Amino acid sequence: MRLFIAINFDDTFRNGLAEIQKSLKSRIASGRFTRIKNLHLTLVFIGESESAKDIAVICKETMKSEMKSPVWLCIDGIGRFKKDEGDIVWVGLDDNPTLGWYVDKLREKLAEKGYIKKSKGYTPHITMARKVKGQRCEDLRIPPLEMKVSSVSLMKSENHGNGQVYTEIEKINLPNRFR
Question: DSSP character for 163?
Answer without folding.
Answer: S
